[in-house]
Specification:
The structure holds 2 protein chains of 2 kinds.
Chain A lengths: L3 E8 L9 H16 L8 E5 L2 H4 L4 H9 L7 E4 L3 H13 L5 E9 L5 H6 L14 H16 L3 H15 L13 H5 L3 E3 L2 E2 L8 E10 H7 L4 E10 L13 H10 L8 E3 L5 H11 L6 E2 L4 H4 L6 H14 L5 E8 L5 E9 L1
Parallel strand pairs in A: 2-3, 2-4, 9-10, 9-11
Antiparallel strand pairs in A: 1-7, 1-8, 4-7, 5-6, 8-12, 11-12
Helix pairs in contact in A: 1-3, 4-13, 10-11
Chain B lengths: L4 E8 L11 H16 L8 E5 L11 H5 L10 E4 L5 H14 L5 E9 L5 H5 L12 H17 L5 H13 L14 H5 L3 E3 L2 E2 L8 E10 H5 L6 E10 L13 H13 L5 H4 L2 E3 L7 H8 L8 H6 L16 H4 L3 H17 L12 E8 L4 E8 L4
Helix pairs in contact in B: 3-14
The chains are: A alpha/beta, B alpha/beta.
Chain lengths: 349, 385
């Protein structure tokens, strides 16, 4: 395997925006490219992640390409997935030896449509979508099963939320943040039992961009390159009644392949949009209780779909690059109830 | 230097307007199981799956591969979903090939598919999006002006498109998987078919199809041992350019020319017309064969139409093109690019049956998408590179 390092990352202030996707994305791409020290035309490969259904438009990524700039013509690809998988494709491309550097970006705007309705379209189209189950209720089924299997309580969930929001105070890009008393949170009504508002993601609009480079180039570009020591992704079956919703076997395989257990982990950035999913993931990834989880506040506090997975990896990069920790796990998820998971291990030079 | 990759299994569904005999999982399994059978493997032998399709609106399912995961044997494995507009079938295969080239996996399954009958592609292409104006013209309405520009600059005779369509429709009669098979097809039938988007007539257009195409890719060591000799990947290339800016040549796009130049350089091809035995290229509207002949360097600028006119691209010509009947005969959009690759690979493996080109040793698969701005291509060989 070739050494591949992250050299720069930028993200938007994730709010419910009046700007369109391209307008949100452009300054972010510009910033990541500027920080990398390379000119856009010096970057060998470009890969992006986004969703047509979220934008309500076919070929959502085509307009983005016009904005990002692709002249003279570039080597470029796009995944209909979170940007974390675009990072994976770019990492593969560097592994083939064909390219030395790559720009990765992703964007997602959850505000224009009815997200509950949109996400129901991810379920079995013949038997389930017609019932229009909203995503929070589907997650609620998982949460209920998990609490009973793991002998956890709604208080455990509220503690995840309170800690995340407290940590998010230091993150200028986070949306839901502040000091919250667990007792007061538990006094709130259910959104969908056993989940309350604080257990569900704060949806937002956002974009992220990252530049990665192979070994020597990464060393040349970054003061402290952050190496991708391992990266892997796996998927579980879709049907909610088929798999054990209280576990994430695909995350467990990905973590093992990415080498999570090989050395001490300082902190983890997990793409856990619901509070109980953080607990499921910690178990699947085999993280010890002393590992700090989601110092950024995580996807519970700020979720721009299709961008938030890459955002977790970018947040982990930024923390290590600033010297706050040496080795971290970053994670991204897709689909309902943690169906598909990507795990990577990052390590500072 | 990247590791070698061979295509060791190929499977296609029967293409049709409405495959109501199968669900989406059934459609993908039909292609995947045929590809696995060709390679004498099962799902258990596959390390990773790479899926491609065009916009999710074409079925009305968001990220359908998540729903399809277990049906295509991806449980517990890496599953990637590529989407690069019309070129997606090609670029999906490119991504899958790169997994082998990078040395990450030994066997990869890749599938391109579309089940247009689940939704409506014209609707899918004509939504009224927030912040912008809907075109409501479909793909034909978009590409017709580019064809007019080509006719203007090349002086091509006006029946060039009809001749291309006739050749492809005759070839389709030799391909059991082809969607449109019109036994009594002739020049007049095409010429007299309704004008849809001037100068594109009904029978000069691709159909809307349901279908899937799958390939099994393997490392050099495993490909050498495959039950049927593999198609070796000699080179592959992708290029993209923006849709709109002043001075862009959308008729003969730079991205296509650059991708072809890159491909030939990697494949050590100095005279593509001579050294490539046949090609499957993405021609959704008849005139694009002549246009892409130039873009791909098979003909000098403004002379691509002559290849059509002289019969050079016919099944018995010096550079047969779209022996399978092409996109004009089967257009399951997300599969169309991969079908080009698969058909090109079948030629070097001697699997093309009635539309086989004798002695094909080096072949080209090509796809494009967006507003003629996304290009992916692959060069296959009977021998190792």
């Amino acid at each position: 395997m070739r050494d591949v390092g992250i050299v720069s990352f930028a993200q938007s202030n994730a709010l419910r925006e009046v700007r369109n996707e391209v307008e949100i994305l452009l300054p972010v791409v510009k910033e990541a490219v500027k920080q990398s020290g390379l000119a856009r035309t010096e970057i060998d490969f470009t890969c992006s992640g986004s969703s047509d259904f979220l934008q309500g438009q076919p070929f959502a990524f085509v307009m983005a390409l016009d904005g990002v700039g692709a002249w003279p013509p570039i080597k470029e690809s796009h995944v209909e997935m979170d940007g974390a998988w675009a990072l994976y494709e770019a990492w593969v491309k560097i592994q083939t030896g064909e390219v030395e550097s790559a720009l990765i970006y992703s964007f997602g705007k959850t505000s224009p449509g009815d997200l509950a309705e949109v996400l129901a379209l991810q379920l079995d189209p013949y038997c389930v979508t017609q019932l229009w189950p909203d995503a929070d209720s589907v997650a609620g089924i998982q949460a209920r099963l998990y609490l009973s299997r793991a002998r956890k309580s709604e208080r455990d969930l509220a503690e995840v939320a309170a800690r995340s929001r407290r940590d998010a105070r230091a993150n200028p890009h986070a949306v839901a943040k502040g000091d919250f008393d667990v007792e007061k949170l538990l006094a709130e009504p259910y959104r969908t039992s056993p989940l309350r508002d604080h257990d569900c993601p704060t949806n937002s609009d956002g974009a992220t961009a990252m530049v990665i480079a192979a070994g020597d180039l990464a060393r040349e570009l970054a003061k402290r390159p952050v190496w991708i020591r391992g990266i892997d992704h796996r998927i579980d079956p879709p049907a909610l009644g088929v798999r054990d919703l209280t576990r994430a076997p695909s995350a467990q395989i990905a973590a093992s392949k990415a080498g999570v257990g090989r050395d001490k982990i300082d902190f983890a950035e997990l793409d856990a949009p619901y509070s109980h999913q953080e607990l499921i993931l910690c178990e699947a990834l085999g993280l010890r209780p002393d590992v700090r989880i989601n110092p950024s506040g995580g996807s519970l506090c700020t979720r721009a779909l299709f961008s938030c997975g890459l955002n977790r990896i970018g947040d982990a990069f930024a923390r290590i690059a600033s010297g706050d920790g040496d080795r971290a796990v970053a994670h991204a998820t897709q689909g309902h109830c943690l169906q598909q998971n990507l795990v990577c291990v990052l390590e500072g030079e | 230097m990247a590791n070698l990759c061979g295509v060791i299994g190929i499977g296609q569904t029967k293409y049709d307007a409405k495959r109501i005999d199968v669900s989406m999982p059934g459609l993908l399994r039909e292609a995947a199981l045929r590809a696995l059978e060709d390679a004498q493997l099962t799902f258990a032998d596959i390390d990773a799956v790479v899926i491609g399709k065009a916009p999710d609106m074409f079925e009305g399912v968001m990220l359908p591969e998540n729903y399809l995961a277990d049906a295509i044997g991806a449980t517990g494995k890496p599953l990637l979903r590529v989407h690069t507009a019309g070129s997606v079938g090609g670029s999906t295969a490119n991504v899958a090939i790169s997994l082998i080239q990078a040395g990450l996996h030994e066997r990869v399954l890749t599938i391109g598919w579309e089940k247009q009958s689940e939704s409506n592609a014209m609707w899918g292409l004509s939504l009224s999006p927030p912040f912008s104006v809907a075109v409501v013209a479909g793909a034909g309405g978009y590409f017709a002006p580019l064809i007019h520009a080509y006719i203007e600059r090349s002086g091509a005779p006006e029946d060039t498109g009809i001749r291309t369509a006739l050749k492809d429709r005759q070839n389709a009669l030799k391909n059991p998987y082809a969607h449109l098979q019109i036994p009594d097809i002739d020049f007049d039938k095409i010429a007299n078919s309704p004008m849809l988007w001037d100068p594109i007539r009904y029978l000069e257009s691709c159909p809307s199809s349901d279908g899937a195409c799958a390939m099994v890719l393997a490392t050099e060591k495993l490909a050498e041992r495959a039950p049927t000799p593999p198609a070796w990947v000699h080179a592959m290339a992708m290029r993209s350019e923006p849709n709109q800016f002043p001075g862009r040549d959308a008729v003969n796009p730079a991205a296509g020319r650059k991708a072809a130049a890159d491909l030939y350089k990697q494949g050590r091809i100095s005279n593509p017309r001579k050294e490539i035995d046949c090609a499957e290229i993405y021609v959704p509207f008849s005139w694009f064969e002549a246009m892409w002949m130039e873009n791909l360097g098979f003909a000098p600028e403004n002379e691509g139409w002559k290849m059509v006119y002289e019969g050079a691209t016919a099944l018995d010509g010096d550079l047969p093109v779209n022996m399978s009947g092409g996109v004009l005969s089967s257009n399951a959009i997300g599969a169309s690019g991969m079908i080009r690759y698969a058909e090109a690979a079948m030629q070097v493996r001697g699997q093309a049956g009635e539309h086989q080109v004798d002695g094909a040793r080096k072949t080209l698969g090509h796809a494009y998408g967006g507003g003629s701005q996304y290009f992916s291509m692959c060069l296959f060989g009977k021998d190792k590179p």
